[in-house]
Design brief:
It is built from four helices and six strands. With about 160 residues, it is α/β, with parallel strands linked by helices. The protein has a six-stranded mixed beta sheet, sandwiched between helices. A hairpin with a 2-residue loop joins β3 and β4. The chain is globular, with a radius of gyration of 14 Å. About 40% of the residues are buried.
Length: about 160
């Protein structure tokens, strides 16, 4: 069994050969505009447009916590919009992250990665604006992806 590779860099620009799946966590209210999605939208318009349409049509599709939408943005690059946070604000109900939804989404991500023979690239999902802790997310990534043979690279951006 492999391990997660950690590097400093931009998760929207993986420099490995082969098919790549770029995974990130979205909220369940249709909001897109802060955090990692800004970098995604700077590079490709399709993931945001697809997410907004998916949310708009949620009454007739699978949009909801734990769901994943796969958007092909280049011949060998896909973006996985994973719904893993309830709302966008911390409050009386705690932080927005929903670990069980991220876990379910990671299972779907693994299936797609294996279907495409793709490597997975992500920031520390669920740990930015969603308010989650990496010590809870990392074991899910190992269980759902790494144990199934999916190569995972986690990107830390910036200086810290």
């Amino acid at each position: 069994m492999g391990e997660i590779t950690y590097i400093r860099g931009d998760a929207t620009a993986p420099s490995v050969k082969g098919t790549k799946l770029i995974a990130h966590v979205c909220n369940d209210i249709g909001g897109w505009g802060k955090g990692f999605v800004v970098a995604v939208s700077r590079r490709w318009p399709e993931p945001e447009a697809a997410y907004r349409a998916w949310h708009r049509r949620r009454a007739s599709n699978d949009f909801g916590l734990g769901a994943v939408q796969f958007v092909q943005v280049e011949p060998y690059v896909w973006v996985a919009n994973m719904v893993g946070q309830r709302g966008i604000r911390s409050g009386s109900k705690g932080v927005p992250v929903r670990y069980e939804a991220i876990d379910a989404a990671l299972g779907r991500l693994a299936d797609k990665a294996l279907d495409l023979n793709a490597s997975v690239h992500m920031p520390r999902i669920g740990c930015g604006l969603a308010g989650g802790t990496w010590s809870r997310v990392e074991p899910m990534i190992k269980e759902r992806l790494v144990k199934r043979g999916v190569a995972v690279t986690v990107y830390d951006h910036g200086e810290n």
